[in-house]
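Page 42, continued from yesterday. The earlier attempt failed because a stray header line got pasted into the input along with the sequence. Redoing it now with the clean sequence only.
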Amino acid sequence: MPQQLSLRISLNDDATFENFYLKRQGSQQCSKFQAVSILKHQFCSNSATAEESFVYLWGASGSGVSHLLQAGCHQASAQALVAQYLPLRALLDYPPQQLLDGLEQLSLICLDDLQVIAGDVAWEEALFDLFNRIKDVGGRLLLGANCSVRELPLQLPDLQSRFGWGPVFQLSEPEDDEKMAILQFRASRRGMELSDDVAQYWISRATRSLGELMNCLDELEEISLQEGRKLSIPFVKQVFNFS
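This time it went through. Structure tokens are written below.
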């Protein structure tokens, strides 16, 4: 068992495929649909998408990259497989060779925030070695960043080519109307009704960050349960002190 599993990195319980909102308008062959389809079937031996050992996701904060990386880990765990999610932004103080040593033994490795190690030769060399070890054992690696492979300022050209070994998907940041739909979708998953009027009122006055909106939804859920109140405009206005 690799030493890295003692890092105590916890997954967001809500970061599952079931909780990932997909806008069903227009062509369903968009990046998000394709990415989710591949990731959901990565351990299905009778699926063609299971052959994709390396997948690279990129997009701005709120686009869903971190959500899907963690969803992959949740799914692997549900199938009694061992997976590890590593948010590199929080692990920069660890020696990279030691941190990544032995990870190829796992069924799935998910590396998030790749952009933070770009230009650090020690990290790049450690990742290069990990890629080769994973390829040798037939493992699976899911990568996440806030920019495309070509935009990463990497020092090792061979590492850049490896980042593009598999499918590369750009996840777009949701517009306000989609954020509203995501809030309504996530509220319904928790047994709460969030009407269009309440959602529009909330979105027009709150932060535009989807992550912060999700945190606000957590707060609303807790207070509504405590006070036995439905999600209404007066309730939202009171909780967040909107003018």
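Notes: The chain has two domains: 3-170, 176-240.
Reminder to self: strip header lines before submitting.
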